[in-house]
Amino acid sequence: MVVGAASRDIASTEPRGWRLGGAATYCSLAGARLGLDVGCLLGVDAEAAVATELGLLREAGVDLRLAALEHGPVFDNLEIDGRRRQRWLSRSDYVPVGALPPGWQDAKAWLFAPVAGEIDDEWASIAGRGARVAVGPQGLLREFADDGWVKRVTPYPSDLLATSGLVCASVGDLEPGTTLSQLRQLAPEASIILTAGDAGGVAMTAGELGRYRAIPAECVVDSTGAGDVFLAALVAAWILSGERATPRALWFAAAAGSCAVEGVGLDGVPTRAQVAGRLKGRKSGVGE
What we know:
By secondary structure, the protein is of the alpha/beta class. The protein has one domain: UDP-N-acetylmuramoyl-L-alanine:D-glutamate ligase. The protein is 23% helix and 25% strand. It contains 7 helices and 15 strands. It has helices spanning 23-33, 54-59, 159-162, 180-186, 226-241, 247-260, 272-279; strands at 2-5, 7-10, 18-21, 39-44, 63-68, 74-80, 83-90, 109-112, 132-135, 142-144, 150-152, 166-170, 191-195, 201-205, 208-212. The strands form 3 sheets. The chain has a 9-stranded mixed beta sheet, sandwiched between helices. The chain has a 4-stranded mixed beta sheet with strand order 3-2-6-7. Strand 6 and strand 7 form a beta hairpin. Helix 6 packs across helix 7 (272-279).
């Protein structure tokens, strides 16, 4: 089960002026293409609800249910001095727990993937005993400032983090000075992975810290959503093989992220066969 809101990301090359995004959108599509049976409760505003990209999720086999939001997140992603910055044009309403379809609370695995604080702590009690819970905390690390800029905030206590078994965030989403120890205090039972794009990243599992290398892409077309695909691949490895952020799972996720940047938007989300092809003949770069 994937829960979150779809974002509309400003894109001047699109006739309608925006492209559908959001971590839940990318993660659910990636999960399905990597072999998972995915249900997705996706918060959408009126425009996102009729986006053609939703057809990609349905074609991949995602059981997609839409939660109508009066306001959904809208972002303008900018490159300023070589660094990505975001302006917000719309905040997001909460995705209500009551929108969850009957029977879905019995899911064996959950991925909470907020981009704009649209998932509150009420969701932490939904996952049943023994269910695997992963969190992409991007939307918990953002402040929508009055000047229109999205700003980073220091991680704060959250029931979502406290009950999670896997947390994956980009170092670019963290307030400078945030340490792994701080994240460990907030998510004491979780494997914690920090990604750094083509610089690879670090993983803390069972108190042990390891590094993994990124896998070079053949060409970089669009890096949006690559971290979400990486997270979905980690969840897929956890569910399908029982490996939670092991070296092999991290290498699989690195390959998925590498493939994701070679297409525009959701079109870049890879299949399991594409990821296997990227891994073929490559020596694991974990722990090196």
